[in-house]
Amino acid sequence: MSIALMERPVIETASEVLEPGCLLHDGYYAITELLSWSSFGITYLAADRNGRAVIIKECYPSAFCERHGLNVVPRDSAAAPVLEATLYLFLQDARSLAKLQHPNIACVERVFEENATAYIVVEFIDGLDLLEIIEHSWPQLSADNVRDLLNKTLDALDKVHSAGLLHRDISPENIIVTGANEPVLIDFGATLKTLARRAGSRSELPISKSSYAPHEFFVSGSKQDTTGDFYALAASFYHLITGVMPVDGQARLSAHLAGKPDPYIPLSHLTDDFDMAFCNALDCALSILPKDRVRSAEEWQRNL
Question: Is-contact 287 246, C-beta < 8 A?
Fold first, then answer.
């Protein structure tokens, strides 16, 4: 059973989180425990009225709000318009995510407003995330298993991009493999954070671990597109296949700008389990500059 953790935060006191037993949506959901939090929101494990486990994400941009009782209110008058705009964008994007019906994407089951904020209810996925598989070397994945996982995750990512969305937080922790060897893409919180920044948020904590994120994800105002998600996906599978995290994207860019060799080690140098077409396609997705990367799931799959 796996839940991806987000960045540790800006939550100042325990009173800022909903307590276990707190009821939401007219008592249909009961908070079970706090899972994680970030500068943008709080994630809880909960149970519905039938006792089924679900994940609930609460819009809580802590730099601009605080909790009075159960209600989320602006920290001051200057924060009020930012909080209002962030909430609007949270709901807008949540409803877009709810339309992403795909077997390899965690399903958004419900979006609702309550306590002067908004919540997303996401299905609970039972399985092991890729990081657990990497760290514990279990279950053992064959080359064919890895190919299948990658292809299905690419199909899921194509669905995301076709909807005009970016994930922006792909990492081994955010890909869960079920007992049926089905990968499921989870945690689109980073997409919502992007919208929050458009609303004026100054909250700039890193949303991805640097070994998986392309350099442009850490540069304020930089252009970000589908190639960044493909970079992160390639980095995650590079780690899965080799057991070694790829070199930090910012360090690679620094070397490039200084005219030094790229410290990245091509996949084919670290494994004999995959043919050159597979290795070259993954290396291409991991190119330093976005213009050199694959631009679509179809292109990547074709290159395989």
Answer: no
pLDDT tens-digit profile of 250-286?
Answer: 999 999 999 999 999 999 999 999 999 999 999 999 9
Predicted local distance difference test score (pLDDT) of residue 11: 52
Distances (CA, A) of 38 to 64, 207, 282, 284: 13, 9, 30, 32
Q: What's the CA gap between 189 and 186, in Å, rounded?
A: 9
pLDDT at 13: 59
Per residue in 156-208, pLDDT (tens digit) is 999 999 998 889 889 999 999 999 999 999 987 555 555 444 444 433 434 44
User: What DSSP string describes 217-278?
Assistant: GGSTT----HHHHHHHHHHHHHHHHHSSPPPPHHHHHHHHHTTPPP-PPPGGGT-SSS-HHH
CA gap 304, 103 in Å, rounded: 22
Residues 161/297, Cβ–Cβ less than 8 Å? yes
Q: Which of 230, 222, 213 is nearest to 283 (CA)?
A: 230
CA distances from 63 to 66, 175, 186, 196, 203 (A): 8, 29, 25, 12, 7
- Residue 12 has what pLDDT? 52
How many C-beta atoms lie closer than 10 Å to residue 144's C-beta? 9
Spell out the residues 6+ positions from residue 5 whose beta carbon is closer than 8 angstroms to its own: 35, 36, 173
Using omega within 30 degrees of 0 as the cis cutoff, is the peptide bond preceding 139 cis? yes
CA 226 to CA 196: how far, in whole Å? 19
In sequence order, the β-bridge partners of residue 105 are: 185
Residue type, 21: G
